[in-house]
Amino acid sequence: MFSHRLMKLVLLAFTLLLLQGIITPIANPVMAAAAPAFKTNLYGQAIVYSKDKTVELANGIPFISLDLLASAIGLSYTVPKGQDQTLTLKYLDTTYTATLGSKTVAYAGPNNRKGTATLAAAVYKSKATSRYMFPARMASSIFGLEYSWSAQSKVLGIGHPASPGSSAADAMKIKQLTDQNNALADQVNALQSEVSSLKSDKAKLESELEMQTEADYSKAVDGWITYETTHLVIHITPKADVKFHYLVTDAEKMLDAHESYFGANTLKGDKVDLWIHDNSGFFQVAASGRYLPWMDALTMNVEDAYKLAGDDSVRFLFAHEMAHAYQYHKWDIDKLGSKLSGQFAWLLEGQADYVAKKLSGYTQYGIDTDAPGAQRDLAYYKTEMSRRSSPSGWTPMNWSDIKTFTDLNGYPGFYFGFEAMVYFFDTNYGRDKYLMLYNNLEKGQTAAEAFKNTFGKTQEALMTEYKAYFGIDKY
Ligand SMILES: [Zn+2]
Questions:
Q1: Does the keyword Ligase apply (predicted)?
Q2: Which of 23, 107, 163, 359 measures 20 to 30 Å from 412, CA to CA?
């Protein structure tokens, strides 16, 4: 069955080849002079075509030459000699006897098997080729061959109807098919493995997606979005970026006062790292904001700042901390504090607040108690000084004990007094002089020397002026 199916396939293939013009059909039954040049395929099937000239048509019936038939299926034969008209053919275990001009073929085989078969046309000897010609269909039926004939295309096909697995040809074909099958099986296995792997990936991604969906965004540790401006590399958490993006867009504008007060190029081309974050997760333990001079970085918990007085407080925080960045770039703070026992908060915090509140115009606590910009005039400073530090104020100070500005350092939280000092010198002595005080301190001068060298007056004299200026001496 296997071979028969294959045979049909081969015949079909043969037809296809024919249609494609690869095989030339017998155009005109002719007589071949050359030796047969048949071809057999894998199944022993002889493919006959015109140039072999081993096929002839007689009265519309295809005849195949005995020598081609012999070569195609391996029968042996003897041809008539002299007056003898008898052809003897031996195929497998059967002997066939045919007579030229006769349609009858006698056969004899083992087990006393014998008989006659009648051909559709008599066997003859070709006058053109001297080949002995058998009617092809009858030859195939007598010898048990597969046979096909197309009257239209004049193509003859004939060959062994090989038994499954009985021939080397079939064994070879089976092996080929088995190999193909194994190769296909391997491919299927590979594909199944790939599918399995993809399924596993899919499951993993779905699992991850599910986890992401279920994650509480407010508790997630955010990544950072990074922006770069002229003076800053700004890292901001996505959550903070939603509400506080103006810090990114306005950052350079908010540094105008710093550039003006400390001087352009104070940062010397350095870009300060600004880390702006919300107040979720880990950031709950990173309150407010600060400048880290050793890293030239600034952190801002914007949600904390926002709680005070909204966006103004956020902008204030930025301006205040950035003022520290400018201070640390403008002066060597360690040297500046070397003769101050490391106590320089009164110098740094007052100036930072002055730049952020008075010059930049941001309020930290709201405009009612913490007026911004131009509203921060002498009257305001006097009123607030009294409200905060007079005997009837929030935190009364023993002003009589304070003889110098360095004495203010005994009240490290008194930022307002520090800021008022900057206002006092800025207004009465000029900005350049006040900045020179820092330069002199940086040079290693003591506070007494620095004040004297800068303003031409003793610290004590200047503190007396300070108290009178803000009305403290009236308390
Ligand atoms: Zn500060």
A1: no
A2: 359
